[in-house]
Predict the 3D structure of the following.
Amino acid sequence: MTEHRSSDPAHVHDATVVVERVSKWFGHKVAVSDVSCSFGPGVTGLLGPNGAGKTTMLRMLTGLILPSEGSVTVLGSAPRDDVAVYSKVGLVPEEDAVYGFLTATEYVRYAAQLAGVADPATSARQALQRVDLLDEADRPLAGYSKGMRQRAKVAAALIDEPQILVLDEPLNGTDPVQRAHLINIFQDLGRAGHTVIVSSHVLEEVERMTNRVIAMVDGKLAAAGNVAAIRSAMTDIPYRVRVDSSDPRALAAALVTDEAINGVEFEDGLLRIETGDLRTLGTKLPVLSRELGVRITGFRPEDESLESVFRYLVRGR
Amino acid sequence: MTAVLAIARNTTRQLLGAKRLIGFGLLTLSPAFLFFLSSRNVSPSRLLDQFLGIGLGTFYIIVVPVITLIVSASALGDERRDSTLSFIVLRPIARWAIALAKLGSAFLASFALTGSGAFAMGAMYGLRADDWGYVVPMVVAAAIATAVYSAVFVPLGYVAERSTLLGLAYVFIWENGVAAVTGLSSTSPWRIGYSAFYALVPDDGVRQIEDFGVPGVDGGISDALTTGLIFLALSATVITLLLKRRDLA
């Protein structure tokens, strides 16, 4: 575990994986640029659009590629220099990379043998059971759907309950039921104190798994921390709030001239307010409600979802 | 040890798929079949000449390198191309152990094919000439040549995108062209294997091979084994370094 930097949301106090000023370039193309962050127990989402540098970052975390500059330490070691650290790391790669000629049982048992698990056959069965693949486990992986292969990869990565689990777009190709099941597994691992790092460009997926995100855009760290905290730190970007009331028209007329309000939209009986100062709006609305005799039945910020935070981050670059 | 054996077993199975077994099975048996066809009406005095000619010109110079190239270059090359190599390298296994497992399985898979062809060729001569003294030299020479080719082609398959093309250039342009005329012929894998054959065959075979005048095949069995081991040690070192230092992008 490493010392934390208390005020920096990109770092955690009980870090198991530490990224220090890491850059990676391939020829003239910069894939990751001067990123520092850390990951600790629990689930952390690594977010970014395609090409943001997420996969390069995850490959550096696991030692598959070396940083051009900076350093990555996993449980205090550089993975390339100390292969023993791999007994505590599991990876689910983004690529659909499995041995097609093996059955799922053989594939996961192979993972168990490589990991040095005491009873590979039993461990393989348990891991397959965990991802709900045991009934289909004796078919060659080549005949599996993409979602099934993803689950086989997750089973192989979980074979020795690694302390650190790195998942690169792990839900690709899975159906909603499988997705929910895998998300539960990752959340359980996070709650049990494992460091789970999940990359995704599908924000809704990450939002369901975790509150802590590290967002990358164009190879750089765009934001880090709690989703709502990231959103409130972006003071230059107005909030959008939906207000449900008994008389939205009257409320809109009263708000439209207010200094704290950037804009008001009235559509299909719904009132949407844009403001740079959510707190002022929050104190003003009850006053207006009393003065106008309007009953407010709902007040919901519309853009604290990862999708909108992410959209702002990308737009700002 | 379990991990190393698991890698070797899985790799051997990967390298010997059904299509390869059939295709290369036919290729490796083709010199024996060719000898069977061409020796039907040959006089006993010409039989050995025919056998050695096909054995050298077809089996050792073409069949052994081509089969070993395709099979051995896949040992790490296919894993890199299919992105399955991370499955192996992200495990607590020493890189040299992975290198040895890959080299060993590449040799075993290749030799399963080339050894069968060598045995068939020697046995075919035994049937025709009622002389079984060439079976063991054929198989030993195939084993040594296959091992040395594996030592060259396993790392080549890992580093080169077009390993087959480069491997064929190595065999047909470098090994049988440039090296043969520049005094480097003793480093040619098939010649290293053929040196063992030359050392092990009965006397009539020795005389015949000397008549062929093949350069670089007079080192003897111990030289062949030593050179083969040097190639394998160098190859294992190179693969270990590549696994340690090369990015798996």
About this structure: The first strand of chain A starts at residue 17 and ends at 26. Chain A has a mean pLDDT of 87. Chain A has ten helices and 13 strands. The interface with chain B takes residues 26, 59, 62-66, 80, 83-87, 89-91, 93, 95, 97-99, 101-102, 110-111, 113-116, 120, 156 of chain A (CB under 8 Å).
